[in-house]
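step: validate -> pass
step: tokenize input -> pass
step: predict -> running
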Amino acid sequence: MKICLIGGGTMGEAIIDCLLTKKVTKKEDIIVSDISQTRLDVLSSKYGVRVQAESKKATEETDLILLAVKPQNLKSVTKDIGNLSPNQLVLSIMAGTNISTLHSNLNHPCIIRAMPNMPAQIGEGIIVWTATVKVNRNQKDMAQTIFKALGEEIYVDDEKYIDMATALSGSGPAYVFLFIEALIDAGVHIGLPRDTAQKLVIETVTGSTHTVQKTGKHPAELRNMVTSPGGTTTDALFSLEKGRFRSLLVEAVAAAYNKARKL
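step: predict -> pass
step: emit ->
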């Protein structure tokens, strides 16, 4: 599988790292194009991949073109790329850029739109994706191979779910990081040393997540297992519910979804 990566920023580099670490493809089968020669030099030196400043030349003789640029750069990038071969697959991870926009700019029928989240940078992400009708089974398999190197993947048959995933899993890590940060601060507030509070919180969040995954139980059932009648957890949960913790989170995700639809 020969891959052309347009955009060598943070996510672009993370994809290169994951693909090579998990032996999805060889370094000589990856070519990167970026407007920054400095970034190209760094990626070439660090990973041994091929680099090319001109996007059009970079896409030649590649099976898959992965767009990892900012949405505002789409028009200039697609203009530089020009016409693609009918059998080439375009895979876009640009936030807020729908398939219709990609198709009109590229004039190309084989497009996959995907939404990875930030943990994909360490190979533990979740990627939600969809494809146009012109994308064949072999091309879908290529895309899945890339996604699995970045973490887990979910295919959806309607593009509307991509915007929903943007609000939930795409922005989701920020919600979780804020929760972790606040919980650490709470530990410090009651008297714990910060490093101890951080260790306790991280292991608690990690362990709780794994418990949901491994037991298959509903989170509400697991929560009830921790909550003894009249105990400390009961008082803590009462304070959270009194402060509209649950409804505020729902409102936050809805706000992110509405924003994603407007982009």
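step: describe -> The chain has a mean pLDDT of 95.
step: cleanup -> pass
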